[in-house]
Predict the structure of Putative proteasome-type protease.
Amino acid sequence: MTYGVALKLDHGLVFMTDTRTNAGLDNISTYKKMFTWVDEGESVVTILCAGNLATTQSVVSLIDERMKAPSERSPSILGLPSMFQVARLVGNTLKEVIAANAQAGQKADSAFNATIIVGGQVAGSEPRLFLVYPEGNFIEAGDDTPFFQIGETKYGRPILVRAFDRGMSFEAAAKLLLVSFDSTIKANLSVGLPLDMALYEAGSLKGGLTRRFEATDPYYHATSDGWGVALKAAFDHLPDVAL
Amino acid sequence: MTYGVALKLDHGLVFMTDTRTNAGLDNISTYKKMFTWVDEGESVVTILCAGNLATTQSVVSLIDERMKAPSERSPSILGLPSMFQVARLVGNTLKEVIAANAQAGQKADSAFNATIIVGGQVAGSEPRLFLVYPEGNFIEAGDDTPFFQIGETKYGRPILVRAFDRGMSFEAAAKLLLVSFDSTIKANLSVGLPLDMALYEAGSLKGGLTRRFEATDPYYHATSDGWGVALKAAFDHLPDVAL
């Protein structure tokens, strides 16, 4: 499993994902699931991947043009005139990879499917955020639901629904995501630390701050512990049911 | 879907379940999913059902001995010497109903499966709580995990994990369950009001307080609104991430 979230704020975009992959409970590894392409002043694209690792790695390699020699690469994802075109490119690449793998037939338990969040900005337009399905089609985050979750979405959703506010600062958004990830990590073994976070400041058209929260990260632990205490206090403060 | 929870407290047992059933999104109804049998001074048994409604209603009817004339009924679930035997009876009945329905083959999209929480007390022993699987086998709530959830368990789990305490009062437990149900109802359309709650006081060996929270219940709304505010305040109070 995986847990990934992207928020569309007034200030820009915030991405967070865990790094645990698993093939069964007895075979877990750590892999990056967040990738960013930057053409400073022109376009910035970040993707979060959930699903079959062979599929998503293949998609990333194709977008990166890793079939070419390193010196000849110029990822086509960066030359496009709009984020809609970027989402189309990711969707088509994803669909092709799944179709190519499926030709040989399904041998393992897990499907070849994957879901990808695509967010970023192209010069001349606003930042945009898309959720791309394994079929290659996609939806865009709107004003009513300005965030997307992929993977194990349920445990971390209640706090997002309650505390998300598109006017919030990057600092508050990072805190919100840590709380949402903490609830998920406490409940699902297949979502695990370290966590990768990336911020993109609207209009900057350059790579933003990235941060990895390791299992030993003091802020992560302060948030997790502090949230437990705060939640308990909030709960105790609610009036009991009169029975 | 369904959401049902049973807590094993030092003071006794607390059960809560929603009442929404659905066959697709366009066909929803309200049905009781909680049933209690009482033989005062001897034994008290409550069950919560999740899964195929035809299966669970059939199980309840068989336990109720509704194949006999009303005057001849004396539910065998009440004459048993231990809660372990009660759980076995429920498990065997459930397994038989599923097997009988499956004989004719599966025609609809949904499976015949169901999961049942069984809790109660038989004179001479402590209160006990079991989770019965469609295969008829079951597990018992222990000291480390003294509660069970069935149905749509994920959205409401984080607050249970954080705030449950087996020494808590019935009033606090009712509040905890309302918060857990509120998080679930906000996220999954197939879990809906009204909610049924039942309390069983350890050692009482008689039917305890029951309460139905309707959609208009002022306490339910006070809890839901109050929890939103309290959660937001708790979140704002956590230190932001220093970026």
